[in-house]
């Protein structure tokens, strides 16, 4: 029993990171109908910016802040300069544009920072552990779970309680009607992209101390976040969080009881199974197409 | 200078006029004679470009003509390569039966992946195919009995009509012949009822269904055919590299295939070949850049979509049209 609890605890920490990535993916998908394949690379960029700032001797909060803000700006600029001009285009061309940007970003990061792995210094340690009645939790996973929950709560406050959040929801529901009622849809979407980029970068910074930092660091967590978004429902923010946590716990339990080797494959089996059985996901609304 | 077509037979012709035939003869002769004059390295790169052309043509059948996204073509590439390699080494079949086995298995994989595609569209299909490609890669990495793991699966020496495929010139001739046959098949297929059905599905699946196109059959057929092309290319790729390892079939490979099709031109066979050749040459010419080469790929894809969504093929048509009516 305590073994199971341990697996669940490990899974929750990983799941909170998946949830952060999934939130970014869902935020963008439901507002601009774009599946952002550059989400992971944007997040990695943020970690690299923070890493460089730390290496220059900047204090922690400033360096991490610089990474978050930098990613948010690049993400918003990506939307304004590259996505918006092709907005009238098909799902295919939007997907291709984000893929192209993902390649461009990862190439740039390889160019600037090289492919060798780096240690990302972080105030929380992975080695120091807490014991909570038989369950061992490292300081780092406890921290990332806490920060993850905090960010999810902050995001839901922003989306539900602020004017910006109201505008975001309006634009997501019906961009034309929102624009007619005076919502500056372009600016709101750019803000949405910035928020999504920032969330991704936060997930990256929480992950970087546990794995080593390299330009392809976020590839795997990004794909897991994707799977979490599909599992929860591509247009539901609570769904993204639920999907992330469920996927994290499922992976951890699967690795513990069935097979460590195929742990990473589980996410992709989940994607295909969900898409086949319940394409709208756990909490999403079923989609209908108007002809 | 507009060519007037006066009969159906004229419309069906693939090559017309003596200029067309002369150009074709010149092209084929050039392809056949290349290994006799070019250095070994150039022959190797040309073989690689031919293999990629087969993938690009296959992927374009699916993405450009039928309008279905696939980000998992490295998966089909792997299925073809490993089927071929395993049948050669474990069962000891000959080259041609093994190639056929690779074609059949990858087509079957394509059919299976195509089934969910009946219910999914756009971004959802992108995710499902992405998942297929990644899962294939991970199964290969982890199932060492099947794939030989990280040490790889070495292919035996194959002799065809007394010539060894270890000789890169022989391999080149083999690969280019197969490529030409598959390209011809694709061109002819696209001009048939099947090709028109693909395009109809792409432009509006509802309208296509109302016009009597069986969506189930043609969507899965497009997936199966596309996977068949990719699988055959994978089998040939095994001989080009000499051994198979999971790292040949990563997500990046799928994305590179996709870039080839986009840069070359969606819904254009000649564009696919152009894109494949260009994006095969680029890394060879700029080998000093290493993985930073992704900057070029990414920028190329974004710029093409932004300024010439039809890719290089559309630009080429435009240039032709310009000179045809020059100096007007």
What would you note in describing this structure?
The complex is a heterodimer of chains A (291) and B (328). Chain A contains eleven helices and two strands; from the N terminus they run H-H-H-H-E-E-H-H-H-H-H-H-H. Chain A is mainly α and 291 residues long. The longest helix of chain A is centred in the N-terminal third of the chain and has 31 residues. Chain B is globular, with a radius of gyration of 20 Å. In chain B, 47% of the residues are buried. At the A-B interface, helix 4, helix 9 and helix 11 of A face helix 6, helix 12 and helix 14 of B.
Feature tags:
heterodimer; A: 291 residues; two-stranded antiparallel ribbon; B: 328 residues; mainly alpha; two-stranded antiparallel sheet; 4 strands
SSE topology sketch:
The complex is a heterodimer of chains A (291) and B (328).
Chain A: H1 2-32, H2 39-55, H3 60-83, H4 91-113, E1 129-132, E2 135-138, H5 139-161, H6 163-173, H7 175-180, H8 185-207, H9 219-232, H10 237-257, H11 263-277
Antiparallel strand pairs in A: 1-2
Helix pairs in contact in A: 1-5, 1-8, 1-9, 1-10, 2-3, 2-4, 2-8, 3-8, 5-6, 5-8, 6-8, 9-10, 9-11, 10-11
Chain B: H1 8-12, H2 17-37, H3 40-65, H4 73-91, H5 95-117, H6 122-142, H7 144-147, E1 153-154, E2 159-160, E3 163-164, H8 168-190, H9 193-203, H10 205-210, H11 215-241, E4 243-244, H12 251-264, H13 269-285, H14 294-307, H15 311-324
Antiparallel strand pairs in B: 1-4, 2-3
